[in-house]
Design brief:
It is built from 13 helices and twelve strands. Helix 3 packs parallel to helix 4. The two termini are 26 Å apart. Helix 5 links the parallel strand 4 and strand 5. By secondary structure, the chain is α/β, with parallel strands linked by helices. The protein binds pyridoxal-5'-phosphate. Pyridoxal-5'-phosphate binds next to helix 3 and helix 4.
Amino acid sequence: MNNIPFNKPFIIDKELQYIQDAINKGILRGDGLYTQRCHKFLEEKLGCKKVLLTHSCTAALEMCAILADIKPGDEIIMPSFTFVSTANAFVLRGGIPVFVDIKEDTKNINEDLIEKAITKKTKAVCVVHYAGVACEMDKIKDICNKHNLILIEDAAQALGSFYKDKPLGTIGDLGAFSFHETKNIISGEGGAITINNDKLIERSEIIREKGTNRSKFFRGEVDKYTWVDIGSSFLPSDMVSAFLYSQLEHMDEINEKRLKIWNKYDNFLKSYDVSIERPFIPDYCKHNAHMYYIVFENLRKRTDFIDYMKQKNINPVFHYIPLHSSPAGLKYGRTPYEMPITDKIADTLVRLPMFYELSDDDMNFLLKTVRSFLNQYN
Ligand SMILES: *Cc1c(COP(=O)(O)O)cnc(C)c1O
């Protein structure tokens, strides 16, 4: 019987050839030829002045927290329905995540709840573009400007998505992307930071290079390089960048293929008169088909669905355990208001298999299985 995983890492074209080439060129450390190619590609593709590869989105978010100058006690407003790194990056600087509820439609942070969570200690807002679907950025930007807050976009899932024709990850002061094997464009582990605020560009290079001005030295702008700031080693090996570069060259094709799969799910479920909720894409957003999810009425029904699919060797998955009520979230974060939508969605949302190599045959089998579950349930 077919075994359909939730995700499957893939090679699209010249990944191995480029890795071999990087090895032949004799530069395996960070910032070799392929890292520079990726930087240039992403800067042009996103229309962004500065993009730097990192070894993960987690690392990019940690850089964001340093660049935002988060000090102990500073507060960062963010959703709770997200991956741990969104919060952890700031907690590592002594920051306090302040969790705000999400919207029922997009599962993104509710922009109307941000302002009442602001205190004297609020330093930044970190939004998450869930499933590659844009947050309401105009409103959020206005709030940040009005209160002088730094705006960070956790765009881990959102490479290739847009808010009103603006690429996600380029709207706030800083953005973070992931190339983890579960994302659209992959390099196993990998990430990138976008620096859209000119004032933070120079410092971003220093922080990424262990707190040294080594990038300036390589460009011949200083005679010696030395320790000038805090920092860490955030850059990937050029072998990883070589793999990534091949994927980036096919970025549009990869996202289009995913969109076909996404539409197949959506058209199938649309034609079905059942009480399951499908993803909502606002008019202002063009999305990258990072995820196809459905939402059931309650936890029991979701559990039954996952069990049923697993029996047929199909592997849907759920997430997230909300951060605000997790052990570390209770210890390090603050939750000023109730979180009814977050709690409900965490119990009822399930993600269906979605990956570049998902075949038509597997897709048909998958939809047939979903249909038989729904038929017997309704
Ligand atoms: C995947 C993901 C991350 C972490 O990305 P890594 O590259 O694995 O560090 C952070 N935030 C969100 C919203 C993610 O989906």
